[in-house]
Every structure is written in C-alpha cells, then in structure tokens.
Amino acid sequence: MEKVRYEIDPHNRLVIEKTGKKADISRFRRVLDGRFKTGPDNSLMYHVKSTIGGTGADSGIPHQVKLRGVWSLSDNHDLKLTLDKWGRQTFGDQLTLQGEILDARKNKLIFAVTTRSKEKTASAYILKLEGAWQADENNRLTFRVNKEDGRHDVLTFNSAWEIGKNYQIIYRYAKSRLTRKRDKTHTITFKGHWDIKDRARVSYVLDKDTHSAFNFTTSLGIFEKSKIKYEIGIGLSDKPQEEKRTLTLFGRWTIKKGVGVTFEVRYKGRTISKIIFGAQARLTERDTVSFKLINEKRNDTGAEIELSHDILKGDGRAFLKLLKSRKEAAIYAGAAWRW
Predict the structure, then answer these.
(1) Inter-residue contact 162 to 170 (CB < 8 Å)
(2) In this predicted model, what pLDDT tens digit does every residue of 125-164 receive, in sequence order?
(3) What is the pLDDT of residues 312-326, one digit of tens each?
(4) Across 193-309, where does the E strand assignment appear?
(5) 32 neighbors 22 (Cβ within 8 angstroms)
(6) On the chain, which terminus has fewer CB atoms closer than 10 Å, C or N?
C-alpha cells in the first residue's frame, strides 16, 4: 500500500513524499508552493499553488492538504504538529512551522510564518489558533488549543514570565536562527487584570467568558493598608529551583453597599480595576475594623486586613455605624449585605 510522508522545508513549504509499502528509496517527492491555514477544530490545511522541482510526475497532487495531529511548542518557540495516523498518512511525522509569536489575545495565539514562492519571492502571513490561556501546575504559561469533542492540546511556554510596571504579564524568549549569529529576543505582553478568589491562589484574568486566566498557586498573600503582595514560584524543566516572582499591587481599600470590600488598583491610563471580596467584619480593641476576607462562595481566602476608621468613608461610615449599633462580634459585608 502506498504511504504518504509529509515534511516542511526551511521556507515553511510542505513537502510530500510517496513511498511503496516495502520500498527502500523514495520514488515521488515534491515541494509544494502554497500557504498553511488553520481550519475547523484547529486542524492544519495547506493550500497548494504549484509544485517546485523534485522527482516524479505531478499527477495526483491535491489542491489542498488537510492535516490533523497534536499541537505543541518546540524549544525554539515554533509551532509543531505531530501527525495522527489516518488514511495514507504515516504516523508520527512532525511538522515544525518556523516563525514568530506575534500576539497573545484573550482566546487566540497569533503566529507569523514567512515563506518563499517558486519565483523566490519572500512573503509573510499569519496563523491563528483558538483556545484559552491558562497556567499549569508549575505556574508556567500555557495555551490550550481547542480540539473536537471538547479535547485540547497544550502549548507550554517553558521560560519564566515577568511582571511589568503596569502589573501586566510579560513573556520573553530567545529565538535562534541558522542564518543569524545572535539569538533574537521576542516579547509577548498579556493584557488583563489581577483578581483574588481563592486561598493561596492569585489570578491574572484575560477573559472571563472563555476562561482565559492564569491561576497561579502561591503562598498566602500579605494584605496591608495600601498594597497586596504575593510571592509566586515558577517551576522550569531546565532549572532545579523555582524562579521567584513578586506581585505587589498598590491601591486603596473601600467598602460599597451591595458589593463588599474592594481593593481598587489603578492601571496605566487611569483605568481602575476592583478586586472584590466578601468579609467577616468585627471591631477591635484598637478601635479599628478587622476584615476577614472571603470569596463569593464564602470560603476563606486566607487574608485579613485591619483598617482604621478614617479610611472607611462614604458607605464605609454607614457600615461602621451599623457594626457598632448591633454590638455583634462580627457581621458579613458582601453582595448580600443590606440595611
């Protein structure tokens, strides 16, 4: 039975090779001039324009080749597709698309590919993979590529990310090229906001609707008058010890009727993002208010903040008056709080 083997040449063009079942040498090999495109369920398609050189006749060359397999990210941050076994396709062939990650949107990965036509004209185009950004158990950044039947492939970004001056997550990686003497550094900036919902966990949310969020495992946070601080460890496969990152969010505490206790963080461009908590509030002997912070499910976040009366303005004054009048050990401040 005739088998088909696929490769990609240095110019990101598909190479097709047909061999006999027991043949020891190739009897048909063609470089196909064309472009890749992602299809339904993030399959990979190659639109063929013409053939280039090679041996054998052109009969049987398709106008479009559809490829299915498992997506991954190479050590050089190229897209790699390990082909499934189907039809006449050989099992385990790996197609590596050399290029650059242009952008990381809330539910997409944008990858730039450069190719060359049979007339030796260079051009570039982009591929889009649909999915969701998430963190793995080692706090590394990953992109989950959507597949059929609710399945997914995982692209793991195995370098340490950073936290920018505007609290954004920044990922940098060095790209090696055979034609260059020096590696080129590429930078990806993720646009989102920080949130705190669980104990010993802090999240960087890109999009709530698509569940694109980096949920990082941490030690317990430190909550103070004007800042929140977390230590986050990143486990990398090529390093014996974790890379440490410190997240320090500066802002101010407020209390809003029908909302709860909020920490307002000011981002670049005067944008304010609110981290919202419920809380068990009680008066202290120091004439301050202690808030034991809980999430929307009323689970303990492991955080407690003590605030003086002068911080509690507006709705906070009314809440303080209510707290004093009831003379209770603690009352709940949150979405269900009314008076």
Answers:
(1) yes
(2) 999 999 999 999 999 999 999 998 889 999 999 999 999 9
(3) 777 777 777 777 787
(4) 193-198, 201-207, 212-217, 222-223, 227-234, 243-256, 260-267, 271-283, 289-294, 300-307
(5) no
(6) N
